[in-house]
Specification:
This is DNA topoisomerase. The structure is a single chain. By secondary structure, the chain is α+β, with helices and mostly antiparallel strands. It contains 23 helices and 31 strands. α9 packs across α12. The protein is globular and about 95 Å long. 30% of the residues are buried.
Amino acid sequence: MRFSLVIVESPAKCKKIESYLGPGYKCIASFGHLRELKGLDKIQRSDYTVFFDIASDIKKQKHIELMRKDVLKAEEVILATDDDREGEAIAWHICQIFDLDPTSTKRIIFHEITENALQSAILYPRTINMNIVHAQQARQILDIVVGFKVSPLLWKHITSQNSLSAGRCQTPALRLVYDNQKDIDASPGKKMYSTLAYFTNKCIPFELTKSLENESNAQYFLHQSIGFEHRFDRSDVKQISREPPEPLTTSKVQQLASNEMRISPKETMKLCQSLYEAGYITYMRTDSKKYSPEFIASIKEYVEKEYNDSAYLHPCIDGLAVGSKEKEKEKEKEKKKGKKIVGPPPQEAHEAIRPTHISCKKLPEEMSAREKKLYTLIWENALESCMAAATFTTFIATITTHIKDTHYTCTQELIDFPGWKIVKGKFSKINKEYTYLQQVKIGSTLPYKKITCKFAFSGLKQHYTEAKLVQLLEEKGIGRPSTFSTLIDKIQERKYVIKQDIPGKKIECKDFSLEDGTILEETVVKEFGNEKNKLVIQPMGIMVLQFLLEHFDSLFNYDYTKYMEDELDKISNGNVSPWFQICETCWQDTDLICDTLKTEKKREIRIDDHHVFMIAKYGPVIKCTIDGKTSFKHVKKDIDMETLMRGEYTLEQIVEEKDKEKEKKEQQSIGEYQGHPLFVKKGKFGIYTEWGENKRSLPKFGNRPVENITLEEVVAEIEKYGVPIDGQKPESPIVRVVNDNISIRKGQYGDYIFYKSNKMKKPSFLKLDGCTLDYKGCNIIFLKDWILEKYGVQ
């Protein structure tokens, strides 16, 4: 039976798409990119022809062959990859692999997985937009030029044992965190006293408009307040409005989820992908702040039905429709030309992120709690953004003090019309303080109930949250919204930046209060600068960035990065010729700088004659060289790199104390075994024991402190799997090595698969159940394929 073959990127969409399109259509997935650019030698610089290779992943190669069978059987192929640069490029690669003509092969676009959207897309296909494909290739070439040329310099000049990398957008993202840390270091904050006074029988709080500089000022202020006649004043009532939130773009949904759910941008995009593929929300990679006309119509119907009042609708709701202004202009042009307007409107760019159906307020129970929470945020935002502003009446109440031009203030407001705030219902139509202060006579004297002066810091700068970093990336034009989550994840994966809690600094200080004419003093300990889940740059990140800024500042400054993003946008729009000019410019600029670094020495910071601070495989260490012997010591986590580079640290100030304790403990045996002292030590891969010439791993003890492990426990573990005699190793537990990450091993309950990649902290232990191969002697390729198919690892 002949069929139309629809090719998407993700397999999760296929069944739903087939159900909407009906008989005669088959939907398969490419599983993302099928070809890759492996190196600079695959780029022909004369015209920037790129020689792509089929992905090296065996599983992907097999999948391509399965796709080829479907392509050959199909009556027609319809490319339905995502509507972004990567999706357009994947569609083009599919044409290249399967000998399809990109100028005639159908390419369809849809931004939500609904029956109407798919049927409309099928009715009005287009072909591949080569401008967008060239923009993606230019982006790919720029990234590989910077990565392949600059990253090796980090290995040469900082460390070759760590996976250090530089990136066209990754490095400016790291620079934002670095610059913020410099601002924090330069702004220790200013000590001050904040003053709050409580007036009336309702004890309504009023805030002093001026901060007091020190203890004596605070005490003097309170003393002067004892007999002072505080007089009340009130501004005229005025009406204010609060506009609804804007429709959600990619960056805005990442910020919203980070702030409301405390999840990373990467996790947010995974959840959005899941919701999109299940047909609950529209496409999640978008800069648009518009909705489809159909969705606007459904909002109007929902609001009028739910709230019984069209006043709750945004007064300019029709202006939120995709292409509303453009369509009117186009219609006017056609009318003037005397042409009849036929057919559907042209396919527009993405919509904002929204629910596919506003009537679907909650997700089914089988969805995860996080998916439900994120969907609720998206649903609420979409509805709120289409509603009218909330209006309030407000006034400012003031009370005089003995200081000229300084007074207490209290702002009160009362909601008139809830507008968009009615969606969550988090408002009150009653404000007792508002009503009470409206009745107080202007000019009347109000005695204080209590006045407090509390010690505080002003001007303390904070580390960035992931949400804040997303906001800054967008503002400065670093990368695209679809790449923000990857950039933030990458600088953390490289250990340049860590998301962590920051302990505050405890300070003993004095607070003062005035009550019933008596000034009270209280000594308290307060903590300042305490932060939760913030991005903190690490010594490795600082060393890497300082090296890059010293030599590649022009390549990684914010303006140049934004310029390149703007140029990529111009290529997408067909406004640059030739499209590869930006690639050649970047390549020449990078080569010019790299040539000047041939004599640069390795980056190390000397502490004294025998000790050097450096970056090793697992991060910063102190390299100790005495009498030709080299050892390494751990570095404290809270060192200040600027202080270190100025040479102001002593060895004792920078070395982790546990190293000294560890050395002492490891020099003491826990007993004797086979005539040798037996030691228990903690190494890179966990706890192990050592006696004579023998060593044995002790995984049973996990992260248990070595001082809590007894001789009897260790001997029992040694003898459990055979005892080495006079330095001879027992039979190896490894049955067969499959590759660097995988081996077949003997276990207590039979053979098993041991899997551990370089990125994994702990290994995985996988069963051989169901393996019909002779895994000890069969062709290694067959064994690798079976493990890949069974467990998805290689």
